[in-house]
Amino acid sequence: MYCVGINDSYTMSVPLQILRPLAADFDGDVLNIWLIINRPFFEACNAIFNPRNNMYISHNNGLSNPDVCVQKDTVINANTLLWLGRNAKRKGEKERVAKLKAIVAQHAI
To answer: What is the pLDDT of residues 52-80, one digit of tens each?
Structure first.
């Protein structure tokens, strides 16, 4: 993983998909942060610890690793967020969205 941001509370954010393969949760687990000191160290860490390179493909059968697929709670939260905003549109916004959809439909192949 790469550092994409620093929090002011001395914590590090991690993607939720990697929690299951690492047997991690939010009860005080420790995640080490390493300083990249040279190119060979970076290449070794990238090959071993980068989730994109090492966790998304199953080491058992070469297919997609179900442990890092989108989890059901993520899908439920995304769906809830989608439906929360459906009824909160301002006046005229629904018509604007309909016009944009019509324009996109005209230009679609």
So the answer is: 777 778 878 888 888 877 777 778 888 88
pTM of the model: 0.43
Give domain status of residue 22, yes or no. yes
Domain count, the chain: 2
3-state helix vs strand vs coil in the chain, percent to 5: 45, 0, 50
C-alpha 77/C-alpha 66 separation (Å) is 19
Is residue 60 domain-shared with residue 76, that is, in the same domain? no
Give the model confidence (pLDDT) of 7-46 as tens digits. 677 677 777 777 777 777 777 767 677 778 899 988 888 8
Q: Is residue 8 part of a domain?
A: no
Sole residue written with tokens 């300083």: 35
| Residue 45 Cα to chain centre, angstroms | 20
